[in-house]
Amino acid sequence: ETLFLLLTVQESFPGTVDRAFLKKHWRQKEIFHKGNLESLGQVVLASATAHPNFHAVCRLILTRICADTAIFPAFWDKIVDTTLCSASHERKQLAFRFLEHAVPLLRADQISAAMSPSLLKMLINNLVYPDSFHSA
Q: Which of 38, 72, 75, 120 has its CA 20 to 30 A from that of 103?
């Protein structure tokens, strides 16, 4: 909830959260910086406790990440592809939720990064079983 609040304040009241504050608390002057992928990943993993709901902070993260063509591929590879796709059933479902919410936000040239080989393999493998992720 802390990141959700921080992003909401940052979006609603530009200039309130200054770069010095972010540097002190996030080690970077921007929240969505490659140096913060580990911290963002921890937030995403913690959001899996809201399973099967897609936590509001994930929507905010995804909206900002998809708009940033420089960080999107690194985020998707590290967080969705590597971390979520190779974890528990709940986290795999979260990976599908990320894909579901990301596709409408992405430009055409970003779709191939989102449809990573491990995500496609997971999707194909689970389509065989009627009770897998079909609700995702």
A: 38
Cα separation, 89 vs 87, whole angstroms:
7
CB 31 within 8 A of CB 6: yes
Q: Which of 54, 67, 129 is nearest to 99 (CA)?
A: 54
Up-side HSE of residue 24: CA atoms within 13 Å toward CB? 5
What are the tokens at 25? 């608390």
User: How far apart are the C-alpha atoms of 10 and 67, rounded to whole Å?
Assistant: 16
| Helices and strands (DSSP H and E) totals, the chain | 8, 0
pTM over 0.90: no
Q: pLDDT tens digit string along 73-87?
A: 999 999 999 888 887
What does DSSP assign to residue 16? S
Residues 28, 82, 105: CA angle, nearest 5 degrees = 70
